[in-house]
């Protein structure tokens, strides 16, 4: 069965969600068998996800039975949901009970706060290796999907299990959204290890979140999560059970990276930075905890089972020694490719285990990788190459504020929320980048809009 769930102790607690309901590994197996009787194998199903037991059961049961889910947030905007529905035409929906009336389809089954709905669409032809569909990271307005095989998911889960040396005693705080690739990585790796998931959709400001965190042995967050936690003086809290804190989903500021590394060092915990993409089933690299104090902001090295390299500007690929260029990843967790329409679901493996990540990286003499920026997140203004990620990190490190950079070949545009910096920021950017201040525009906004994973959207 998927993730060897049927090989775990049946009475072992697999997941506890915000309701306090506990599900055992035996419960996951029994539900999967029940789910298989309700809909045909190789059905396409839209899973409207929440971080709850009902949502998790739909995911596990689908992959255990050859049913292909497209996982979307239950909070997906209606226009995007309708676009995806019309493009991909799912036979079924697995959705929270509260959404059933608005979705308007026949309900055929309900369990754990979720309902299975039958649409009017005919069966969809899909490649036999296709197991899971996820929206491309950050693309809240795009119908483009990443196609995963079952082997991709299980290979990455095993890589992560080995990376964190999981032995099944873990209680993992799982707060990242299920429709987000890192959220699924936390779930899959811990279930493969026979551990317990503390599955929460609560805000980090909620008392219930903190009560659950006190029971956790590990916590995985994105930079935005840690920004909130730091404001709440997370590093001063008494969390005796917490053994590992780990980060993915984007680059931390140098200040925050050092603070987390120092906290882990002082409290005898491990801080392990990770890096990945949805196209590689979430994870590609990690920085071993023992290097966190000396390799600030490094993503480290390839995860177990993977390999990293750099292709420089001359097209020369190297696997060791100092180099700068596009980072390339090889591994069994590299996904099959993309889908932009229902017809694309018939496509097979287009990547063949190799992913040109689009990330500009530097490898040091010790073999540790540092992300410099995105190849496409650059401006060239009067011949001067400006890295948008680099400018954002400079501003965040200097002023401790959230910001977002964009622009064109004539102007760098910086979105900020602090009016007191509007006049002084151009001079700071000019000093650091040598871009003339008249080519810098500061825009004051009420907020930097982000999705549930902390990615900037629609700015």
How would you describe this structure to a colleague?
The chain is an alpha/beta fold. The chain folds into 3 domains: 2-124, Rossmann fold (3-Layer(aba) Sandwich); 150-374, 3-Layer(aba) Sandwich (Rossmann fold), CATH 3.40.50; 378-444, 2-Layer Sandwich (GMP Synthetase, Chain A, domain 3), CATH 3.30.300.30. The chain is built from 11 helices and 27 strands. The protein has helices spanning 25-36, 53-64, 78-88, 100-103, 150-163, 181-192, 207-213, 223-231, 254-266, 388-399, 425-433; strands at residues 13-17, 22-24, 44-49, 68-73, 92-96, 106-111, 114-118, 130-135, 145-149, 171-174, 196-199, 218-221, 244-247, 270-275, 285-286, 301-302, 306-311, 317-318, 323-331, 337-339, 354-363, 369-374, 378-381, 384-387, 403-407, 412-416, 440-444. A 9-stranded mixed β-sheet has the order 2-1-11-10-12-13-14-15-16. β10, α6 (181-192) and β11 form a beta-alpha-beta unit. α1 (25-36) crosses α2 (53-64) and α5 crosses α6. The longest helix is centred in the middle third of the chain and has 14 residues, at 150-163. The chain is globular. The protein starts with 12 loop residues before the first strand and ends in a 15-residue tail after the last strand.
Keywords, separated by commas or semicolons:
single chain, 459 residues, alpha/beta, Rossmann fold, GMP Synthetase, Chain A, domain 3, 3 domains, nine-stranded mixed sheet, five-stranded mixed sheet, 11 helices, 29% strand
């Amino acid at each position: 069965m998927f993730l060897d769930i049927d090989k775990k102790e049946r009475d072992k607690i697999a997941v506890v969600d915000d309701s306090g309901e506990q599900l055992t590994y035996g419960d996951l197996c029994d539900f999967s068998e029940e789910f298989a009787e309700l809909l045909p194998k190789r059905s396409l199903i839209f899973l409207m996800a929440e971080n709850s037991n009902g949502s998790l059961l739909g995911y596990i049961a689908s992959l255990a039975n050859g049913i292909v889910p497209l996982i979307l947030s239950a909070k997906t905007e209606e226009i995007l949901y309708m676009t995806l529905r019309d493009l991909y035409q799912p036979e079924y929906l697995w959705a929270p009970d509260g959404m059933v009336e608005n979705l308007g389809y026949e309900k055929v089954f309900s369990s754990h706060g979720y309902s299975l709905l039958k649409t009017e669409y005919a069966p969809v032809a899909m490649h036999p290796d296709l197991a899971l569909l996820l929206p491309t990271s950050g693309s809240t307005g795009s119908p483009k999907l990443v196609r995963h095989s079952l082997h991709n998911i299980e290979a990455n889960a095993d890589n992560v299990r080995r990376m964190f040396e999981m032995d099944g005693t873990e209680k993992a705080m799982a707060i990242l959204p299920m429709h987000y690739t890192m959220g699924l990585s936390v779930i899959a790796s811990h279930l493969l290890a026979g551990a317990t998931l503390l599955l929460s959709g609560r805000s980090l400001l909620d008392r219930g979140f903190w009560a659950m965190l006190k029971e956790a042995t590990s916590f995985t967050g994105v930079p935005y999560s840690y920004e909130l936690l730091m404001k709440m003086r997370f590093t001063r809290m008494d969390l005796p059970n917490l053994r590992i804190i780990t980060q993915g989903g984007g680059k931390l500021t140098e200040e925050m990276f050092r603070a987390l590394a120092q906290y882990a060092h002082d409290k005898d915990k491990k801080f392990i930075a990770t890096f990945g993409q949805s196209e590689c089933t979430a994870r590609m690299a990690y920085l071993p905890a023992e290097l966190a104090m000396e390799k600030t902001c490094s993503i480290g090295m390839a995860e177990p089972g993977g390999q990293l390299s750099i292709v420089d500007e001359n097209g020369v690929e190297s696997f060791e020694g100092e180099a700068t260029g596009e980072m390339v990843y090889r591994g069994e967790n590299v996904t099959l490719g993309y889908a932009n329409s229902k017809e694309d679901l018939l496509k097979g493996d287009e990547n063949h285990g190799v992913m040109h990540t689009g990330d500009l990286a530097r490898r040091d003499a010790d073999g540790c990788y540092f992300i410099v920026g995105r190849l496409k997140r650059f401006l060239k203004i009067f011949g001067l190459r400006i890295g948008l990620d680099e400018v954002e990190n400079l501003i965040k490190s200097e002023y401790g504020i959230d910001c977002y950079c964009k622009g064109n070949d004539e102007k760098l545009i910086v979105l900020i929320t602090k009016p007191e910096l509007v006049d002084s920021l151009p001079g700071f950017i000019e000093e650091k980048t040598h871009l003339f201040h008249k080519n810098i525009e500061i825009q004051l906004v009420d907020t930097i809009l982000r999705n549930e994973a902390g990615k900037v959207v629609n700015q």
